[in-house]
Design a protein that fits this description.
Blueprint: E1 2-10, H1 20-35, E2 39-41, E3 47-58, E4 61-69, H2 73-90, E5 98-106, H3 109-115, H4 128-137, H5 150-163, H6 180-185, H7 197-225, H8 254-271, H9 282-301, H10 307-320, H11 341-345
Antiparallel strand pairs: 1-4, 1-5, 2-3, 3-4
Helix pairs in contact: 4-9, 5-7, 7-8, 7-9, 7-10, 8-9
Length: about 375
């Protein structure tokens, strides 16, 4: 049986955040350690084979997805936790690092293929929000039964609101809820247009909750895309990549998908740290769009997407984005406008796919793995 094991590691408490050069070094060390291991033999003689892996490093640590063939779920989890633990322990630069989470997910290719057949009534919906909602309904911790009870709904509401502080880079004012201190700074204020704190907390918590969904589905997309040259020629169904502008699907290569995931890890990490400021690139703008669609799907599944929380999410959109030029990419009639010199006069950034990962300016750096062309031929990239 094939499994996808997610491993979340963190640097020692009290040490400074990893800078871009250090992150690149961590990727190299972890990759080197995993590449040296083809199979792990357990205490009972069971064999766990490492099939593939992906590594994303952010300022606080590293997130890994390791694909394995193993006799059982428990064997897969134990083997990878042991391997990563050995790498951390015996790599001087990673001394003191710890494993925060090691979870395994079933990877059922045959089941996915049957559901994703073109003529199947169960084929994935074209709307990414609907597709994400369907994905969550099949997840272990999602509400899988129709008709949530009031008790279940309120329990989930409380869970999400409690997660709001974890989205530390974004205050409730960004969601439209102004405190007394905020109001003092406002020349004009109308209570009628102030989002309730409960709705702002629910929206913030739901975004934090949905970050794991976004990252996991991007990992799944990378695995689905691994045997295809690009998304347009991919036989399997894609969860998040299909939410990107469809006219560029032939350019969504495995390398592109990996760059997008690393960018997603970087962006979501910043959202969860104090003093998040601005989006750094077109890719981040598109990723935030995907994250918000996933958030709305999460809320909708639990019957929590009411007018108040939609207003809070709308306020977040207005505050997080400096403009809506990225939406031009979803308008067929405006195809190519991002490369039109006249668009620059409107303050629009270049919008060819190769430009998506370029920083808007020098004060907004992007992850070094995401830098460079995404349309050049891949040369043994991880």
């Amino acid at each position: 049986m094939s499994y996808a094991v997610t491993v979340d590691t963190s640097r020692p408490e009290g040490t400074p955040e990893l800078d871009p050069l250090q992150r690149t070094g961590v990727i190299h060390l972890l990759r080197e350690g995993l590449d040296a291991v083809e199979a792990i033999e357990g205490k009972e003689g069971e064999i766990v084979e490492i099939v593939d892996h992906f590594i994303g490093v952010h300022p606080e640590g590293a997130l890994l997805k390791v694909f394995v063939d193993a006799p059982s779920l428990e064997d897969a989890e134990a083997a990878i936790e042991a391997v990563i633990g050995e790498i951390l322990e015996h790599t001087e630069t990673l001394a003191g690092w710890s494993i925060q989470k090691c979870e395994v997910e079933l990877h059922l290719d045959s089941a996915k293929e049957s559901l994703e057949a073109a003529d199947s009534p169960d084929a994935p919906a074209s709307d990414p929000a609907v597709r994400a909602a369907t994905h969550r309904k099949t997840s272990p911790d999602a509400a899988s039964q129709p008709g949530l009870s009031d008790e279940d709904r309120e329990r989930m509401r409380a869970t999400l609101r409690a997660l709001a502080p974890q989205l530390a880079g974004v205050g409730l004012a960004t969601f439209g809820h102004l405190t007394a201190e905020d109001i003092e700074d406002e020349e004009e204020f109308d209570e009628e247009f102030n989002v309730a704190s409960a709705d702002a907390e629910l929206a913030a918590g739901a975004i934090f909750y949905s970050i794991d969904i976004l990252l996991d589905e991007l990992f799944e997309d990378i695995e689905t895309l691994s045997d295809s040259p690009n998304a347009a020629q991919c036989d399997g169904g894609l969860l998040q990549l299909e939410g990107l502008p469809p006219q560029f699907a032939h350019l969504y290569t495995p390398l592109f998908a990996r760059k997008l995931l690393v960018t997603a890890v970087d962006l979501t990490g910043r959202l969860c740290r104090p003093d998040f400021s601005q989006l750094s690139s077109v890719a981040e703008e598109l990723l935030l769009r995907l994250l918000l669609a996933t958030t709305e799907a999460t809320l909708d599944i639990h019957d929590l997407l009411d007018d108040g929380v939609q207003e809070a999410l709308g306020s977040f959109r207005e505050n997080a984005y400096e403009d809506l030029h990225y939406e031009w990419l979803y308008e067929p009639a405006l195809d190519g406008i991002g490369q039109d010199p006249a668009a620059a006069l409107l303050g629009a950034a270049p919008m060819s796919v190769d430009d998506w990962f370029a920083p808007f300016n020098a004060s907004r750096p992007v992850h070094p793995y995401a830098a460079g062309s995404v349309t050049d031929e891949e040369t043994g990239a991880e």
